[in-house]
Design brief:
heterodimer, A: 255 residues, mainly alpha, 13 helices, B: 111 residues, extended
Chain lengths: 255, 111
């Protein structure tokens, strides 16, 4: 297939992500601008990090000025789900050659959702080139959205107070989706409960690390019980695989 | 800005490095051989809902139910997001509907 036709196909496949990334990217840019970082910073973050919820969280981390260790820890746990994505892409990325490092770098929720679906090509060089185009287009949409957002934030005369609620809403939507698909709500309740306890005990500035540690420890302690819950609900288990892997129904929205 | 420019650049590079690491780890560890250990799969499966719930609470950490608007705008906007999402299940609609309502509430109603 020639380059033009492949690009045409890639544009068609990535259309839902275009809408989602422009919208969420703009919200991210506005938030970043609101805490004092201009469009150049938005560009820098979207080029080097390229992660939806990771970058939203990054705004918080930059604004509150936490330690480098906490930045690393929080980023690690927010992106932990990417481990699952990588596992299911091992096969598909074989044979990507020198494009492979970029494919791995750009494996966001949305790109993962598109690549795990059917793209209409058999495995081979054409499909590899199409995958690469999808990944590059997705990142270009994201960069465009975030730069537009922060530039607009600097130029707009209207009051952007409250725009930071977009991040709360984003996580809330992800939480609702997971609430619906997981066979037990225990992890979600545990996450909320531990964080609330950490907030009361350690205060708003120091709550994340203790909350994260306790969550991981309690999850490990509950291993037998949760694996039991998953096996008792075989139908739900399938759904929950999907939930763990991202929002595939909605490639434009979940980050 | 609370951070110096250098600190901000280092923070962003740490985020970039760690994000890339989480995406690359499966390829580094399991591209050949017998597949990942069970404990990794277990955490990969059950950690996401706990972390997302944590982030929701974290986003609301500065809300104080005793002073100011007492968290009422947040509560209303959260209800709006949940209602919109249960109704239409459209991520963008839920996120922007809730955010616009919140902006109106904090800018015009609960001043």
């Amino acid at each position: 297939m020639n380059r033009r036709r492949l690009l045409h196909l890639a544009l068609k496949i990535t259309l839902p992500v275009l809408m989602g990334y422009l919208a969420i990217g703009i919200a991210f840019g506005l938030m970043l601008e609101a805490v004092g970082y201009n469009a150049l910073w938005a560009l820098f973050m979207s080029v080097t990090i390229f992660a939806g919820s990771g970058q939203f969280m990054g705004v918080e981390l930059l604004a509150s000025g936490v330690s480098f260790a906490e930045v690393a820890m929080v980023t690690l746990l927010i992106n932990f789900r990417h481990l699952v994505y990588g596992l299911s892409m091992l096969e598909k990325f074989r044979g990507m050659g020198k494009r492979k490092p970029y494919m791995i770098f750009s494996l966001t929720d949305e790109t993962y959702a598109l690549l795990s679906g059917e793209v209409g090509l058999a495995p081979g060089p054409d499909r590899n080139r199409l995958y690469f185009m999808i990944a590059v287009l997705d990142q270009l949409y994201w960069i465009t959205g975030s730069v537009i957002g922060s530039a607009a934030g600097a130029l707009l005369t209207f009051d952007t107070t409250g725009v930071e609620f977009a991040m709360t809403a984003l996580f809330l939507v992800l939480a609702i989706e997971q609430w619906k698909t997981y066979p037990t709500h225990l992890p979600a309740l545990l996450g909320a409960g531990c964080t609330l306890a950490a907030l009361l005990l350690f205060g708003a500035d120091n709550m994340l690390l203790p909350a994260l540690c306790v969550i991981v420890l309690v999850l490990l302690a509950l291993r037998t019980r949760l694996e039991g819950a998953a096996s008792r609900a075989p139908e739900a288990a399938q759904e929950q695989e999907r939930a763990a892997a991202g929002e595939m129904d909605n490639p434009g929205g979940g980050l | 800005m609370t951070l110096t420019t250098t600190q901000a650049i280092i923070s962003i590079l740490i985020m970039a490095g760690v994000t890339f690491l989480t995406r690359a780890l499966p390829f580094l560890l399991f591209d050949r051989g017998s597949g990942p250990p069970k404990i990794v799969l277990y955490l990969g499966k059950w950690l996401p809902p706990a972390v997302i719930a944590m982030l929701v609470v974290y986003c609301l950490r500065t809300v104080n139910p005793l002073v100011g608007s007492r968290g009422i705008p947040e509560l209303l906007a959260i209800c709006a997001v949940i209602a919109l999402h249960l109704w239409k299940r459209n991520n963008l609609l839920s996120i922007f509907g809730g955010t616009i309502l919140y902006m109106i509430l904090v800018q015009a109603v609960f001043i």
